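Q:
Got a chain?
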Amino acid sequence: MTRIAAVQGVLAPYRHPQSEITDMVARTCLPAGADRRVLDRLHASSGVRSRHMALPLDDYAKIDGFGSANDVFIEVAGDLGADAVRGALRTAGLRPEDVDLLLFTSVTGVAAPSVDARLVGRLGLRPDVKRVPVFGLGCVAGAAGVARLHDYLRGWPEQVAVLLSVELCSLTFQRDDASMANLVASGLFGDGAAALVAVGERFPAPSGTSGGSGPSAGGAPPAAGPSIVATRSRMYPDTGHVMGWSITGSGFRVVLDPSVPDVVRRFLADDVRAFLAEHGLTPGDITGWVCHPGGPKVLEAVSESLALPEGALDVTWRSLSEVGNLSSSSVLHVLRDTLARSAPEPGSPGLMIAMGPGFCCELVLIRW
C-alpha cells in the first residue's frame, strides 16, 4: 500500500476577518450606492470567520483584467508552492532530489511553463523528475491527486511522489459582478496551498535501483503516516452545469448552482456505502472523516445523507471557519489537521471525501 509520509499546508500572507473582506467585496463588486444587505447576509452565513488572501485588500481594486490577476497567480503560487513542498519533504525526512513524480493542481490560474516546471530548479528537484500539471478538477483535486499518486506508486512502489495544490481563489473574484454566484464565492473561498508526500510500499528502494531515497542515496526513511488502501472516482449524470468556470475576458467567472447540496444528498451516500462494503466496512467503522469543506449546506448534506455522528466533521468545520474553502488545497489541510489534532486509532479506517466540477466525487480509503 502507498504510505502518506507528510502533509504540509501553507496560507497566503494577508489574513483578514470576514467582515473586512465583505467590505472589500462591496466596494469592488456592487454598484455605487447599492443595497448590500444580501451580500452581508451571504457572507455572515458562510461559516467563515477569517481568510487569507494573496494581496492586501486595497490592491484587488487595482487588478486590471485576467492577465494582471494571472501574473499575480504565477508569482504567489510559486512562493506558496515552494514553501509547501519544502515543508512536506522536511517533515518526511526526504530531499528534493528524492522526488520521482510531482503532480501539480490548481484551478485558479494558468501558466506555461506550468508552476511545477518553474519549481524544479527552485526546489532542487532532479532534472528527470516526472511532472503532471492538472487543471480543471477544482475542489475535488486534493483527493483526486492523492488517488492518482496512489495509482502511480502501485506501478513504481520503490519511488516518492509529491502532490502540490495551490489555489488563489481571491484572484478570481469578478469586479462589478453582483451575481449571486459571485457574491457567494467571494464569501467562501480563500487562498492557500498544500503539499503531500507519498511513498510506495517498497520504499526505500534497494541499493542500485533508480528513484527513491534508498540507502545508496543516503536519504532517511520518511516519518510513519497513514496508508492508502483504495480509491474510487465517480461522475454524476446531468450535473455538468452545477459547478465550474465560465471563462471570459475578465477571467474565471464562477458557476455555482444552488442545487449542489441536493446533488450530494442524491448520490453520495450510496457511493460511499458501496465503496466501503467492498472492503468489509460500513460508515460506522470510519474513525476519521477527512471531508472537503464545500460550505455549510454541503457539509450538512454530507452529514445527513451518511447519518454521521455528532462531531464527525468537526475538523472540517473548523477549517472552514478559520481559513475558508481553499478549493483543492482544503481537504489536504483537513487531513493535516486530523493527523495533528485528533489522530484516530492506528490501524483503523478513515475516509477522504471531496467533490467538484463534473459534478464528481473522489473517495480515498485510508488506514491510520
Observations:
- The radius of gyration is 20 Å.
- The longest helix spans residues 65-92.
